[in-house]
Amino acid sequence: MNSVFYSPQTVYPSFVPKETFVSQLPLAAPQFEEVLKQIGANSYHDKHPFHLLMNEGKLSKEALQGWVANRFYYQAQIPIKDAAILSNCPDRELRRAWISRIHDHDGFGEDPGGIERWLNLGLAVGLSREDLLSHRYLLPGVRYAVDAYVHFCREQPWLIAMASSLTELFAPTIHRIRISAFPKYYPWIDPKGLKYFERRVEQAPRDVRFTLGLVLEKCTTQQLQLSVIEALQFKCDLLWSMLDALYMHYQLGIRVPRPLYAL
Ligand SMILES: O=C(O)c1cc(C(=O)O)c2c(n1)C(=O)C(=O)c1cc(C(=O)O)[nH]c1-2
């Protein structure tokens, strides 16, 4: 069984008590941006052992297929959470901009969209469309984590919900790693399946520019900056939890009991 041990000391250089940290808010925009980047440097899921194994070519075919099938639930829910944010946002100009995220995933005009590209990734790793669409491989922990994201975006003020998407600041690097690591370590994957990642490398920076600009402009109070920080941490935690569930299942072989039917 493969295992990569994660050493918290390597990513958490120091802690300050929460009150000390909060008392320093609000920060000027450049410092606030630095704090947001620090959250990603510490907590983004690129450092999760499941991703480390993936990027080093150490996942089994079953585990990689499991990741693709489980991540499909995230893909499928993204437009729903973006629609929830739109439904809470009273600003017409912002809605006009934000709706492009739904188009990116559901498709628009000639573009079949990211969900379709992820279905093609499923085919490229040897799964069927039905394997993904039925969510038959979906682990409960992944479902709960993704559902928590949708609920968060439905319940929180629209600006804070938008800010929770800022994990995308850190996503292009991980997409690029997959574009080079998959053909190298998993030659059985049809390279056509990598189009999802290639497209996100272009889309994510555009999304982030917009959202980061908005957050830096509007979040100038202690309370708003703290809410953004907590939203970003919450989002990092839920991405991390998805991989915990996958690691338990595929690396440690700890299966969720399913008495009525087999996965
Ligand atoms: O593969 C990844 O590591 C990863 C991470 C994230 C993210 O950081 O939330 C997104 C994506 N991919 C992605 O493909 C995507 O479309 C996306 C949308 C969002 C969002 O919060 O609105 N995050 C992400």
TrEMBL record:
GO terms for biological process: pyrroloquinoline quinone biosynthetic process. It catalyses: 6-(2-amino-2-carboxyethyl)-7,8-dioxo-1,2,3,4,7,8-hexahydroquinoline-2,4-dicarboxylate + 3 O2 = pyrroloquinoline quinone + 2 H2O2 + 2 H2O + H(+). Coiled coil: none annotated. Keywords: Oxidoreductase, PQQ biosynthesis. Pfam families: TENA_THI-4. Residues 36-244 form the Thiaminase-2/PQQC domain. Pathway: Cofactor biosynthesis; pyrroloquinoline quinone biosynthesis. Its EC number is 1.3.3.11. GO terms for molecular function: pyrroloquinoline-quinone synthase activity. Ring cyclization and eight-electron oxidation of 3a-(2-amino-2-carboxyethyl)-4,5-dioxo-4,5,6,7,8,9-hexahydroquinoline-7,9-dicarboxylic-acid to PQQ. Belongs to the PqqC family. This is Pyrroloquinoline-quinone synthase. It comes from Methylacidiphilum caldifontis. The gene is pqqC.
